[in-house]
Amino acid sequence: MTTMPLTAPAVRPRLTRVLLRLHRPALYAWTLLVLAAATVLFLLHGPLVDSAAEGWRQFRDCGMDRYCAYDQSAILRYKNWYDYSTLALVAVPFLTAAWAGGALVGTELESGTAQLAWAQSSSPVRWLTVRLAAPAALVTVGTGLLVWLHHLAWAAGRGRIDSAKTWYDVWTFHTNGPTLVALALAGLAAGALAGLLLRRTLPALGLGLLLTGAVWGSAQLLLPRLWPATTRWWSHATGAPSGSWQLTEGRSADRARYYVTYHTYADYWPLQLTTTALLLTTAALLTLACFLTLRRLTGKAAAR
Fold it and tell me: What pTM, to 2 d.p., does this model score?
């Protein structure tokens, strides 16, 4: 009996199914993380923020009365769960990088599974394409959903809760917008690159984390400079307007006037979009580096 060779359209679905089956525990863990975080964010958007806002109203009504009763537990409950959910979202790019470097690429190259796939029905380029495209789609959908819910939860407490995070808080800023999705994709590419470079599970996991941290830190340093800030001059020392992100302040050379440079809330989306564009460009460059590294790796293997 003769068998027809698999065509390229048939190979891609087969490779995707094999990938999802091989990494089924990671898929289950990602699904549970998204569901758990979404549940907490739903509560933060609804009953938790309402009870915390009522607690702050009671506190403000107390005035100077030290013995006045107010619902402190509701205030602390909202603060703690907000912080927990925010940190969980912040961890997504690093978890993605660690998994991509260790399990997705590093382990398969170390164990020889990848080389076996290359020798059968999959070319190295198609193998890497599937391993980047399928997780990228899952990460984009899941992280995008959580970012949207986080922004709703934060907006529900803005102006109602005195201890609510500002829009420019480093963790809140990224978990409130598409920059986190772009950073997660950069983490995926960084982890894959680490796996291709080191071809060992644990070293690739560590390098993926380091590369993602470097991308995050660089983006944070460039963030305030990616959109023009406002500078105001005053005859006396003063700070930025309430609700603004103050960058610098000082005194002119002749010491006659003071200045302050800041971003207002109107700069929020321009900063989000420019930072997202920067991170997506970084992710694209890391992805290109993955394919160039794969070409060098398979070229050496073919020569031997």
Answer: 0.88
Q: Which of 111-125, 183-197, 214-228 has the lowest mean pLDDT?
A: 111-125
> What is the SS3 assignment for the chain?
CCCCCCCHHHHHHHHHHHHHHHCHHHHHHHHHHHHHHHHHHHHHHCHHHHHHHHHHHHHHHHCCCCCCCCCHHHHHHHHHHHHHHHHHHHHHHHHHHHHHHHHHHHHHHHHCHHHHHHHCCCCHHHHHHHHHHHHHHHHHHHHHHHHHHHHHHHHHHCCCCCCCCCCCCHHHHHHCCCHHHHHHHHHHHHHHHHHHHHCCHHHHHHHHHHHHHHHHHHHHHHHHHCCCCEEEEECCCCCCCCCCEEEEEEECCCCCCEEEEEECHHHHHHHHHHHHHHHHHHHHHHHHHHHHHHHHHHHHHHHC
Mean pLDDT within 213-228:
94
- Summarize the confidence of residues 276-281 as an average pLDDT: 96
- Angle, CA 92 vertex, CA 86 and CA 93 arms, to 5°: 120
- List the one residue out of 263, 45, 261, 35 whose CA is nearest residue 164: 45
- Looking at residue 23, its pLDDT comes to 82
Query: Does 1 have pLDDT greater than 60?
Result: no
